Amino acid sequence: MEKFLDIPVYVLVTNGTTDADGTASDELEDSTATFEDDGVAIGDIVHNGTDNTYTTVVAVTSQTVLEVEAGDGLDTAKAYFIHSGTEAIGQIVSAVDTAIVEQGSVSTTTINYDSAVSGADVMTITHTPVPAGSEAGRNTIQAAIVSAAQSNWKRVSYDQVGDALLAAQDIKVIGISLG
Amino acid sequence: MQKFLSIPVTAELNQLVSCNDIKIIEVGDATGPGSNPTTTTTLYYGSGKKVTLTHTAITAFAFRDFIQDSVVQCLQQMWHDVTLVIPEEDLPSAVSGIAIA
Predict the structure, then answer these.
(1) Cross-chain Cβ contact A91/B24 below 8 Å
(2) Which domain covers residue A28, as residue numbers?
(3) How far apart are the C-alpha atoms of B2 and B78, rounded to whole Å?
(4) DSSP codes of every residue in A34-58
(5) How do strand B13-18 and strand A53-60 relate by DSSP bridges?
(6) Which helix (DSSP H) or strand (DSSP E) does residue B97 occupy?
(7) With an 8 Å Cβ cutoff, is B33 touching chain A?
(8) Domain check: are A102 and A124 in the same one?
């Protein structure tokens, strides 16, 4: 019987590369950006892809400058990805044939399928970080898989996982990939 | 239990696409989500097979969401309703081809 988790993925608003040092001023600066036109808003998620760190937008200072959380300013030449803090689109991922769920890192949770096929056996869910040592992402996905399996056969898609992730550690998913 | 989407393809009538063993559905073609994201949508199966639908350009995620909803609806049908026939007028954009890799 097929079962899926319907996971809200917070949409990408814009991305680019910083071209000035904002570490002292708690800022993200990109002279080519158009943050206001793009609709960047307070509370949006900032993912520094170069260092794999996360922060949030505290203020949209101008088209090219964002204020982020204290101590989280980005240095120059950092690839950044800004995701909405409120708008998400549901993506369904298989909840059957699961071998194990792992907290891969503070910002990834993996669903490892019982499959011998490389490339189709690991679903990586990338999310805002949980505290070091926490298994909140894993625990929440595990519980959702169990709930999905327990649900009526006509409930093919289990859609409570987004609320559960927020309740666990304010976890917001920004990407899902199979590989 | 086998379930299929019956998808109208331009000038080809309908083609069946399996709803079983799907792991994820992504925008983009079989090379990855970043490739042709507005004109292709790919279903990834547990077997490693990938079925790519090529369609007219559409806002990102709109076609993927339609296919996701259709797969869920198909799987909710009674066992003897093996196919979910998608009317051509319900497609958010016309499908011009379906390929497996």
Answers:
(1) yes
(2) 11-86
(3) 11
(4) -HHHHT--TT-EEEETTTTEEEEEE
(5) unpaired
(6) strand B95-100
(7) yes
(8) yes
Claim to verify: residue A96 and residue A153 sit in the same structural domain: yes
- CB proximity B30 to A under 8 Å: no
Has this prediction a pTM greater than 0.90?
yes
Residues A97 and A174 in one domain: yes
Nearest-by-Cβ selection for B48 from A91, A119, A154 = A119
Instruction: List all residues 6 or more positions away from A94 whose beta carbon is below 8 Å from its beta carbon.
Output: A2, A3, A4, A111, A113, A123, B22, B23, B24, B46
ipTM at complex level: 0.89
Of B20, B46, B75, the CB nearest to A113: B46
Q: Which residue is closest to B25 within chain A, CA to CA?
A: A92
| pLDDT tens series, chain A, 179 aa | 899 999 999 999 999 999 999 999 999 999 999 999 999 999 999 999 999 999 999 999 999 999 999 999 999 999 999 999 999 999 999 999 999 999 999 999 999 999 878 888 999 999 999 999 999 999 999 999 999 999 999 999 999 999 999 999 999 999 999 98
The residue among A46, A41, A9, A57 whose CA lies nearest residue A165 is A9
Residues A71 and A150 in one domain: no
Residues A36 and A74 in one domain: yes
Q: Choose the closest CB to A92 out of B25, B45, B76.
A: B25
Q: Count up the domains in chain A and report the number.
A: 2
Yes or no, beta carbons of A123 and B24 under 8 Å apart: yes
Cβ A154–B76 below 8 Å, yes or no?
Answer: yes
A159 shares its domain with A130: yes
Q: Which residue, A86, A109, A136, sits at the end of a domain?
A: A86
Same domain, A93 and A67: no
